[in-house]
């Protein structure tokens, strides 16, 4: 078991490893509280932009499905006729500047998740170390933008926000301890405007739920849709470089695929120089997020999209909160 997998397992309970790391979590807690105090006292500044900002994030490490939520929120607002932009840090990219994600951007330069969001929604997406810088650049280049959605950033206090959406999966808050003894990036409970459960079962009694399932097709690099039924009955290789790769493999099996081999790689894995395993030339299926980078090395890989749909009640609550903001102008 890798170090990351061991930590993920340890974060589910208050066992020996978690207890060993608990003193370090108290140091983390003190530093986090001090950082918040700096913003509260005005020693560090929070910047605001002249349009509503919706932050979609989580309080646990290891991914909780926030990127599918970002895409669902962007699509919902677009259907309402709103012009939406997205900002992100672009985690794992090899660049360090502020830039717009283009259709032909190398995911290594903008980040795999921003590349996927732009590809899936066609919304303008800007990446920068400081999301406030990305938001200002986005509005300068796209001044008609009416709403900005921040991919992650609940803990990024330099960008003022109007609505916070906190996403949880089946793990909930794990053992309830802060990093590195537990999965929490900040103490919970904390205020958030909307709570969304992205897993199969709600982590808490309150909040909203969503349905999630793999699409019945896979996408080829050229945009063709390959029905998954055509892959059933033959062995395939499955690859996932996400926070919880086993969840993807389980969903593939539920779709009737026979996984001869599974390749679980670290989240945001760099596929530069990657080579498929030796052996028979079997179909290679992967997540849509991985495909934006993997297609450069394996152009025949097939990406299976995730269909993620928050409940109508969630979108109704989001619309109500957005409409109540001072100065908000609907489409």
N/C terminus separation: 51 Å
List how many beta strands DSSP finds. Answer: 15
Physical arrangement of strands within the biggest beta sheet: 3-4-2-5-1-6-7-8-15
Catalogue the unreliable spans. Answer: none
Q: How would you classify the quaternary structure?
A: single chain
The whole-angstrom Rg is: 20 Å
Structural class, from helix and strand content?
alpha/beta
Q: Roughly what is the average pLDDT, rounded to an integer?
A: 92
Order of helices and strands: HHEHEEHHEHEEEEEEEHEEHEEH
Counted by DSSP, the helix tally is: 9
Main beta sheet: 9 strands, mixed
Which percent range fits the helix content? 25-40%
Q: Give the overall silhouette.
A: globular
Roughly what fraction of the amino acids lie in strands? Answer: 15-25%
What does this structure look like?
It is a single chain. This protein is of the alpha/beta class. The protein is built from 9 helices and 15 strands. The strands form 3 sheets. It has a 9-stranded mixed sheet, with helices on both faces. Helix 7 (245-254) links the parallel strand 11 (235-240) and strand 12 (258-264). Helix 5 crosses helix 8.
């Amino acid at each position: 078991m890798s170090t990351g997998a061991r930590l993920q397992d340890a974060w589910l309970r208050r066992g020996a490893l978690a207890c060993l790391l608990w003193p370090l979590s108290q140091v983390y807690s003190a530093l986090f509280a001090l950082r918040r105090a700096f913003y509260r006292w005005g020693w560090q500044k929070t910047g605001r932009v002249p349009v509503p900002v919706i932050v979609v994030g989580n309080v646990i490490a290891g991914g909780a499905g926030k990127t599918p939520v970002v895409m669902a929120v962007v699509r919902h607002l677009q259907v309402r006729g709103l012009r939406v932009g997205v900002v992100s840090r672009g985690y794992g990219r090899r660049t360090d500047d502020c830039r717009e994600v283009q259709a032909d951007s190398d995911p290594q330069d903008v980040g795999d998740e921003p590349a996927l969001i732009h590809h899936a929604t066609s919304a303008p997406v800007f990446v920068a170390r400081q999301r406030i810088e990305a938001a200002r650049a986005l509005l300068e280049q796209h001044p008609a933008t009416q709403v900005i959605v921040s991919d992650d950033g609940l803990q990024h206090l330099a960008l003022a926000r109007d609505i916070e959406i906190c996403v949880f999966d089946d793990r909930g808050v794990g053992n309830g301890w802060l990093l590195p003894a537990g999965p929490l990036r900040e103490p919970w409970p904390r205020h958030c405007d909307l709570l969304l459960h992205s897993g199969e079962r709600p982590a808490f009694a309150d909040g909203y739920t969503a349905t999630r399932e793999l699409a019945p097709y896979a996408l080829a690099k050229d945009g063709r849709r390959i029905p998954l039924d055509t892959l059933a009955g033959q062995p395939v290789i499955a690859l996932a470089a996400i926070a919880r790769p086993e969840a993807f493999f389980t969903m593939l099996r539920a779709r009737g695929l026979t996984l001869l081999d599974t390749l679980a790689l670290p989240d945001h894995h760099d596929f530069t120089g990657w080579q498929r395993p030796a052996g028979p030339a079997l179909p290679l299926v992967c997540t849509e997020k991985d495909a934006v980078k993997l297609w450069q090395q394996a152009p025949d890989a097939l990406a299976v999209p995730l269909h993620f749909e928050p409940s109508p009640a969630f979108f109704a609550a989001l619309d109500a909160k957005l409409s109540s903001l001072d100065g908000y102008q609907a489409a």
